[in-house]
């Protein structure tokens, strides 16, 4: 009887070890495996999916979302959460369009105005979260509504486009060719937004993984009080995180304006949820379980590949939102549930 019990116990232990190894593999490589399966499946069902032009389409479609998501990722490293990113994109779109169309200024001036707008949004977030000690989610939610409303007030709730009527006369300005090139031009056949996305992704990766600032940001996100006792200036680094998020959202807004060729009211609204989804999906990449630039890039590509493939399969547009939700839920399960099993 003792031998039988011992054998049963050994078998149960072996099954537990096997389950643990399987969970560990799924935890580290599950998301990449699903991405690979999607690529193969879409390529088999629609051969045009696996072409260089379509790859550029996917990359261009996720460039703006990915840039916003990189900023959100940096804000999350300190334990924060920038819900105002989408509103920042929309405000920058309106500001840059107004600068050229309404005030007849140059594209360079519009870019500077857009970047300053992103820093203003970041400054409001810093005042609320760092100075006034308002919780990040509540503070950035308030900033979201504040700048959404401000953009509507400044433009009277109307889109900004060349030839629009201002005080009974046509607007004097237009989008310059150099500015439009930012949204529709190419560098060695690669769209400019994709190049900008790649450069910013590399910069954020280096910042978070190979600098003392990145180590300090992660330390604050792990335990702000312990980081303070270790000599890290918590307030300064939290301000830095929101400044990076604001600049990333501003760059995304500038590229979006250049691509649209107009300032549409609410142009930035869809980018909040998509960027947050990309950043959270990134938690599951290679078992990182924390905000990271590489995971965010993969998360953005994950969403882009899924939407592009479904579009080529003529799936209804309303199914795409469901798929994004399913991907996010799956990534969260991978990050949290499988980690505990492992």
From TrEMBL:
Keyword Transmembrane found: yes
- Pfam families in the record: BPD_transp_2 (PF02653)
Q: Provide the alphabetized UniProt keywords.
A: Cell inner membrane, Cell membrane, Membrane, Transmembrane, Transmembrane helix, Transport
Matching InterPro entries: ABC_transp_permease
Membrane-crossing ranges are 25-45, 57-76, 83-103, 109-130, 137-159, 179-208, 239-258, 270-286, 293-311, 317-338
Q: Does the keyword Cell membrane apply?
A: yes
Where is this chain's protein located in or outside the cell? Cell membrane
Instruction: List the membrane topology term(s).
Output: Multi-pass membrane protein
PANTHER family in alphabetical order: ABC TRANSPORTER PERMEASE PROTEIN YPHD-RELATED (PTHR32196:SF21), ABC TRANSPORTER PERMEASE PROTEIN YPHD-RELATED-RELATED (PTHR32196)
Q: What is this protein called?
A: ABC transporter permease
Which species does this protein come from? Nonomuraea antimicrobica
Which lineage is the organism of this entry classified under, starting from the top rank? Bacteria, Bacillati, Actinomycetota, Actinomycetes, Streptosporangiales
